[in-house]
User: Fold this.
Amino acid sequence: MAKIDAFFKLMNEQGASDLHLIAGQQPALRIRGEMERVKYSPLETDELKAMLYEITPEHKIKKFEETGDVDFAYEIPNLARYRANFFQQRVGVAAVFREIPSKILTTMQLGLPSVTAKLASLPRGLVLVTGPTGSGKSTTLAAIIDEANRTRKDHIITIEDPIEFVHESKECIINQREVGLHTVSFASALRGALREDPDIILVGELRDLETISLAIEAASTGHLVFGTVHTSNASKTVDRLIEVFPANEQMQIRSTLADSIRAVLSQVLFKRVDKQGRCAALEIMIATPAVRNLIRDSKTFQIPSTIQTGKKYGMQLLDDSIMGLLQKGWISAEEAYIKSNDKAKFRMFLKSSPADFTEV
Assistant:
């Protein structure tokens, strides 16, 4: 057993989402969204480096020594997997580990709207799950992929950096590829995937022009493509994809995207105040003909209005979802205010002035 495994067991026992190990400081856990120190002596650089290198693949150590940054996944059987990131900082080495549960929860167990499970049955198109880092995008996507794995008879390829949730083939055949280990980049793996007879492709992150272009192409040529983007709502997600392209290509890509997009889920995680745990608020955009026309006609600013009137299709605005959680007594008014888009809707619930004075 590696020395660092004791911290992972403590992390699991405490229900922490992240473990922070920093040279010169005590270890810390993120529990229910807040950092808490572990009762342990500050870690010396050499001690920490030895602890980290004990679990790190040789080629990842080499990359870290050369670049000062590295990502990989680490697994403790019968406990959990961990997404690891090492980085050099002012006083030495530091590392952050995110726990990835070994059990994949269903969309129902996660408390997600029923329309999210239906996305797994789409025959083709582009489905995006968006939100800030740590908002549960990977967990939501894992639940949707698992739904497809249990209910379809298809070939699923995932391209991740690193592989997070491990899927065992059920009704589907699943191949999981890790960037840096099984392929050099998202783009090269996605290009190769088009020749590997896939029905469903999961792209861990759409972050550059080539990857986005290939994902849209795959979605428009009969594949069901899932991906993540770091955006806060549906309209900004559409704009982000289009703005990556050169100005002279944007009108063409608007048309292609309008035809291929199927849904955008934008989510934010909240700390529960009624019990331990966290819950998600979601904005859901379903690509109805009205939404497609807005994308095609460069009127994405009108998408929120269309979402508001599209509840019968399963659509909902993020603020409406947040309001529902607040009225159930699940989340605090302060956090609802901070993470909402329309602050005026939530100001009346605050007992004091908001913490972020720039939002007033």
